[in-house]
Amino acid sequence: MTPFDLTPLFRSTVGFDRLNRLVDASFETSDGPVYPPYNIEKLDDDKYRITMAVAGFGLDDIDLVEQDGTLLVTTKGREEKRGDVQYLHRGIAGRAFKRRFALAEHVFVIGAGLENGLLHIELERQLPEAKKPRTIKIERPSKQHRLVGKKAA
Question: Residue 95: what pLDDT?
């Protein structure tokens, strides 16, 4: 439960229901370590990168799904071959995980790559032309425009 009551805000707005879920999610606490560790970088005004440490996972082990403003990164746990291996310490996790990222409006995944045990997910804000600022040219009014609104004598 969030410590803030956003009900008054939602009474006078339309289409911001996702904001309520984001606020709720931000106040959730986890009792254990966050797995796998990750970074979120802002590369410039419209470009971002999520880097996740996924040591031991290959290209075929990781699934990325972008849907309805959410990026979901999942893996399945790997079956380890028992064989003759006897671990004295086992610190490289191979357990399955599911990590969900909420994407802002108009932010999309444009690519992903796996290098040296790090999964890099490239994101970009792609504003539609209708949302981009545009400059309006100011012109002198013509005689015809000046007469508009004046009463004929």
Answer: 82
